[in-house]
């Protein structure tokens, strides 16, 4: 009983996660220090921007989310605009959230979630203004935010900038391993039909196929970001080759899904094949392992 409710230990952080934390730490401390040099007392927003804007996206130019940084700016201005509105506190918060979340729908990346940094920052502004009993709290917050954004970009560009080529190669290697595993599994299921195992394999292939498609869109962003990546611009030609390999892998998984679906149907229906026929068919499927020299070619499946 005790083992059932035991909380699993947290996963061991990866090298990229440690680098992300280091970038946030450096940018946050540096932003605070620079803002104090300009006379800020407690430059909260100078630290807030790098914490919310620096990301671990390996396919961005400098791993800084422009949408989040813009969301902080928008929240500052919205909080300032509503601070002087004299309505009951609940109505004011309702108005602020309605406007800020609406702005978050517009200030988001294509296909991304609502940019909630607008609402979070606006609430900070409203609270700080009320706590200070001041008519305006905004000018200092605006330039604090600008300092935080500038430092975040500078630190992310210098300290371990994203390596789109390295990440693309890792994804290609992973997809190659998956294709080998799934083709071999299909061959085994042809030789020894197993309805339950075939359905489980089909679910696995479906999930890996979706990941391959997502990888296609990720590497497309990476190719665009390399133009602005200060340390990896020379990788653009090599990256283009990896992008093609990822695209072909996604097409190959489309065929693999069909093959695995057929294998699952045959395993469930009990195909009228002799043991010798199943062995020959399994050998034919297994022979279609992806050739590393032309990985992802649809003709390999």
Overall shape:
elongated
Please mark out the parts with pLDDT under 50 across 5 or more consecutive residues, or reply none: 290-301
Kindly estimate the percentage of residues that lie in beta strands according to DSSP: under 5%
SS-based class: mainly alpha
Q: Could you report the average pLDDT, rounded to the nearest whole number? A: 77
Q: What is the H-and-E element order?
A: HHHHHHHHHH
What's the Cα radius of gyration?
26 Å
Instruction: Say how many strands there are.
Output: 0
- The span between the termini is 47 Å
Number of helices: 10
Largest sheet: none
Fraction of residues in H or I helices? over 70%
What are the defining features of this structure?
mainly alpha, elongated, 301 residues, 10 helices, disordered C terminus
Overview of this structure, please?
Helix 1 (15-37) packs across helix 6 (138-158). The chain is mostly helical and 301 residues long. Mean pLDDT is 77; it is low at 290-301. It has 10 helices and no strands. It is elongated and about 85 Å long.
Summarize the structure.
Helices cover 70% and strands 0% of the residues. The protein has helices at 15-37, 44-53, 66-83, 89-106, 117-132, 138-158, 164-191, 195-225, 236-269, 275-286.
Fold blueprint:
Blueprint (H helix, E strand, L loop, with lengths): L14 H23 L6 H10 L12 H18 L5 H18 L10 H16 L5 H21 L5 H28 L3 H31 L10 H34 L5 H12 L15
Helix pairs in contact: 1-2, 1-6, 2-3, 2-6, 3-4, 3-5, 3-6, 4-5, 7-8, 7-9, 7-10, 8-9
């Amino acid at each position: 009983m005790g083992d059932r409710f035991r909380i699993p230990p947290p996963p061991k952080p990866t090298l990229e996660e440690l680098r992300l934390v280091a970038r946030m730490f450096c940018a946050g401390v540096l932003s605070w220090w620079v803002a104090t040099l300009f006379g800020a007392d407690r430059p909260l927003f100078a630290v807030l921007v790098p914490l919310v804007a620096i990301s671990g996206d390996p396919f961005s130019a400098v791993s800084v989310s422009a949408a989040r940084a813009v969301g902080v700016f928008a929240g500052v201005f919205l909080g300032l605009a509503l601070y002087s509105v004299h309505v009951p506190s609940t109505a004011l918060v309702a108005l602020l959230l309605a406007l800020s979340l609406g702005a978050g729908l517009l200030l988001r990346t294509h296909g991304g979630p609502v940019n909630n940094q607008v609402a979070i920052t606006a609430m900070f502004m409203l609270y700080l203004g009320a706590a200070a009993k001041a008519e305006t709290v905004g000018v200092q917050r605006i330039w604090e935010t600008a300092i935080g954004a500038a430092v975040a970009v500078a630190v992310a560009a210098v300290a371990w900038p994203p390596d789109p080529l390295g990440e693309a190669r890792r994804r290609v290697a992973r997809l190659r391993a998956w294709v080998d595993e799934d083709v071999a599994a299909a061959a085994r299921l042809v030789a020894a039909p197993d309805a339950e195992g075939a359905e489980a394999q089909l679910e696995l292939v479906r999930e890996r196929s979706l990941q391959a498609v997502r990888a296609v869109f990720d590497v497309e962003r990476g190719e665009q970001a390399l133009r602005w990546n200060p340390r990896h611009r020379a990788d653009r030609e090599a990256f283009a080759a990896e992008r093609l390999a990822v695209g072909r892998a996604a097409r190959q998984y489309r065929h693999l899904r069909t093959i695995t679906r057929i294998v699952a149907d045959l395993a469930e229906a009990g195909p009228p094949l002799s043991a010798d026929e199943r062995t020959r068919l399994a050998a034919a499927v297994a022979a279609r392992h992806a050739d590393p020299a032309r990985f992802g070619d649809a003709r390999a499946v």
